Amino acid sequence: MPIRTNRGRAAVYRKLWGWPMRSPTHLVVLLVVLGVLVIAISVVVPQLTGSEDNDPGAAAETSGPATTDAAGGPDAPAATTGAPASTSLPTRIPSPPQRPSSAEPEPAALDVAEQWARAWVDHSEDTTSEAWLAGLEPFTDPEYMVELATVDPQNVPSTEVTGPAEATESFTNSLTVTLPTDGATLSITLISTPDGWRVTSYEEVT
Question: Where is this region: Disordered (predicted)?
């Protein structure tokens, strides 16, 4: 017969909750039943929620990239993903600087060298530095004139040119000649400029 009153239901609940307390045996039975239920829930619930799909091994097998051969087939060996092997690059040896092209000495360059040498030996006791430099200026590169301004013409050992200029090195844009004087042999270097050949340096070689 169904229980129709709240008082009756409360009496039934009191009997159920009080049953484990009636004896130690009832309490042990209740604990065993609860343990079985907990174990059953821990086994059944993961299967129902699909926890097997979260298995790392299964994920690696199913989500890994498929390997294909050169034609796109599935039986090709897997491509290696390691870092590419380093290859040593050949050492490039720098090319030596290009030497200027040699050329026959231009007569105009030899003529400028001889005129410069005549102006260089043209001095006397009364010759001033300004006058001596004025004779050299038409045949001298402007930058070299700054250095010649420090030379005292009274210290120049020569007074006369005794022979023609002879080329020792001749290139398309530069020329070195030797020229004898009565005091020393001059080694004169000239370059080609938009204004013609000009002396850029000299040395007394003897």
Answer: 49-108
- What values do phi and psi take at 76, rounded to 5? -75, 150
Query: What's the domain count of the chain?
Result: 2
Decide if 147 is inside a domain.
yes
Q: Are 146 and 164 in contact (CB under 8 A)?
A: no
The tokens describing 190, both together, are 């000239």
pTM listed for this prediction: 0.53
Question: What would the DSSP string read from start to end of 146-194?
Answer: HHHTT--GGG-----B-S--EEEEEBSSEEEEEEEBSS-EEEEEEEEET
Note the pLDDT tens digit of each residue in 122-157. 999 899 999 999 999 999 999 999 999 999 999 999
Residue 3 per-residue DSSP state:
-
Query: Domain containing 38: what range?
Result: 6-52
The pLDDT value recorded for residue 177 is: 97
What's the CA gap between 12 and 2, in Å, rounded? Answer: 12
Res 49 pLDDT > 50: yes
> Is 64 domain-assigned?
no
Q: In CATH, what number is assigned to the domain containing residue 156? A: 3.10.450.540
161 bridge partner residues: 181
Residue 124 shares a structural domain with residue 199: yes
Neighbouring-strand partners of residue 202: 188
Give bridge partners of residue 203 from the DSSP assignment. 187
